[in-house]
Amino acid sequence: MSTTTTARSAPTAVSRRGDAVFAGLATGAGLLIMLALAGVAIFLIIEGVPAISASGEQAYGKDNIVLYVWPLLFGTLLAAVIALLIATPLAIGVALVISHYAPRRVARPLGYLIDLLAAVPSVVYGLWGRAVLAPAILPAYAWLADHLGWLPFFDGPARTGRTILTAAIVLAVMALPIITAICREVFLQTPRIHEEAALALGATRWEMIRMTVFPYARSGVISAVMLGLGRALGETMAVAMVLSASGIITIDLISAENPSTIAANIALNFGNASGTKINVLIFSGLVLFVVSFAVNFLGRWIAARGQVKA
Amino acid sequence: MSLIDERPVAATPAPAAMALVAPQIPAYAPLLAAVLATGLAALAGLLLGWSLVAVVLTAWALLVVGLPAWSAAIEGERRAKDRLVTTVVWSTFALAMVPLASLVWEVVANGHAVISAEFLTYDMRGVLGAGGGIYHALMGTLVITALATAISVPIGVLAAIYLIEYGKGNRLARTITFLVDVMTGIPSIVAGLFAFAVFTLIFGPGVRLGIGGAVALSVLMIPIVVRATEEMLKLVPEELREAAYALGVPKWRTIVKVVLPTALGGIVTGVTLAIARVAGETAPLLIIVGTTTTLNLNPFDGRMATLPVFIFSSVTTGGKYDAEQTARAWGAALVLVAIVMTLNLLARAVGRAFSPRTGR
User: Fold this and answer.
1) Which of B82, B89, B172 lies nearest to residue A30, judging by beta carbons?
2) Where are the domains of chain B?
3) Cross-referenced NCBIfam families, in alphabetical order (chain B) (predicted)?
4) pLDDT, greater one: A246 or B143
5) Which CATH number do you get for residue A256?
6) A14: nearest CA in chain B?
7) A188: helix, coil or strand?
8) What pLDDT was estimated at residue A156?
9) pLDDT of residue A54
10) Which residue in chain A is spatially nearest to B185 when comparing CA positions?
11) Selected residues 14-33 of chain B with any CB under 8 Å from a CB in chain A
């Protein structure tokens, strides 16, 4: 491309051609992204639509597609919500330790460590949940069934560790580093001067955090939780490996009969599926796509609204 | 909590006027309380024959009640609340670290025994019980991840260039930014279904191809690359661009020769992190690539094995050789974690090495 220096007589024309090509490439890449996302929706719809009329054998023995997808959607939401109930307080605690409690010398490596843990592949979490956590937690379930069995959640009987609660705990462990990372960033963005003002007025550290950090970080924390929820909803492998599912609807968290989740159900059945069953599974994937899209959208919307306010 | 007796020493008798310093419990109080609580719980545990979990829970309960009570008696209610929250916050931290530490420990402890020269250089052809290796899965992961990178990086970087250098907040750029946000939230299995649907329409039903996995991973990877590149391009000082324009350099050469080199370190870091992220993805590969027991290096011809799917299928197959399969899964998990961690550390190192260029 030495033309730009040699062609003195008409530099504008030459540079314009290079510019046009490059601008075209960049715009094309942008358009390709739009196309790709539209493609995801369109292709899923094309392949998912035949499932709407599926019934009987084609819909895995259910009368229609709604009866098949609804228990899976229930399991997906149940596991994700429990996971978030566990992960959110822990993540806020860990983020507070890193941002405000630990000495700076310790805090930096800790934050670093959390970032590394966020990178551990989900299949490894699944392996850990199946081979380590499930056997280890069974005595706790037995205890819960014995002592808190009057609660519908802990009805039992506790015969296996591979329950929806174990799956939710694994999901919580996975979501924890992600939520922590976002919360930590938000906590650290609290204006220093607000914190110092609170401390100067004699506030204890907790009062300072409650009065300056939390109000400032509220929308950020909520959007972090929503993003974690989106991640937990779509997580496949950990649930597929941990849960021994039977596809029923129950709020008993520790029995051997567990609702499955959409993503795990696809992963476990896709290899053996054929014909309309594939369309049924793709349709359930479409439902998952819509739900996690809604959750992510809500999270970003809350985050954006918070930014404007701050 | 008999230590309350220390109080007369701490509270200096201030004559008439109020004391300048409120009475405080000593700085070593939390440590002392923790030791006391642990000791008491251990003693009770030994006498009553409790399990370790029960002892730890009791010690924690004693600490959470005891330290604030001690503080409340001397320092007043507000300080006591502060100490309670401090204890709880550090407890959440400790609790969160338990599973994470256990995970790392189990992967290393179970995995290192399996790793051997044979494990890394043999595939699983004809292997049922012990023996065999992950060479085919390792190569499959490398091929598919490399392909996904080759697809994602040009598209991602160019799209980010459009967003920052050309679009600058027009409607198309805003739409793309929004869509990239949406794409970051796509469940990985949906990306796999997308690739499956596309390749089914092209090649007919039941298709399994390595390139399909690369396409699915690209859907997950492009938004990460766009985000990282965008952030880095934003950091390039406007003066550099203006200086280049002032010298008569066309816009595209300004971008290629001035803007991109300045942001290169950050972009490389972002791309490496994105690679690390998708290298461990399982679900899309399970859908569109499947798995196999033999080495297949051609992504356009049939099933390929990959490390994550190898782990999944080893564990879930079950049957007579479950123990051997699980052992191999741990070994593969260790290799996979090692790859991902190395990529992460590499990304940080690159980011640090290049950071002075952006820090102007």
Assistant:
1) B172
2) 2-103, 120-358
3) 3a0107s02c (TIGR00974)
4) B143
5) 1.10.3720.10
6) B250
7) helix
8) 66
9) 72
10) A296
11) none
Architecture of domain B120-358: Orthogonal Bundle (1.10)
Cα–Cα distance, B84 to B65 (Å, whole number): 8
Q: Rounded distance, CA A125 to CA B315, Å? A: 13
Q: Please report residues of A whose CB lies closer than 8 A to that of B89.
A: 93, 96-97, 101
CB contact under 8 A, A21 and B182: no
Residues of A in contact with B280 (CB under 8 A): 119-124
Of B107, B179, B344, the CB nearest to A33: B179
Task: Name the domain count of chain A.
Answer: 2
* Domain range for A117: 64-309
| A13 and A134, same domain (yes or no) | no
Is B198 in CB contact (< 8 Å) with chain A?
Answer: yes
Residue A2, pLDDT score:
43
Token pair 């924890």: residue: A176
Domain shared by A35 and A85, yes or no: no
ipTM of the complex: 0.84
Lowest mean pLDDT among A3-17, A184-198, B100-114, B262-276: A3-17
Residues A119 and A213 in one domain: yes
- Is residue B5 pLDDT above 60, yes or no? no
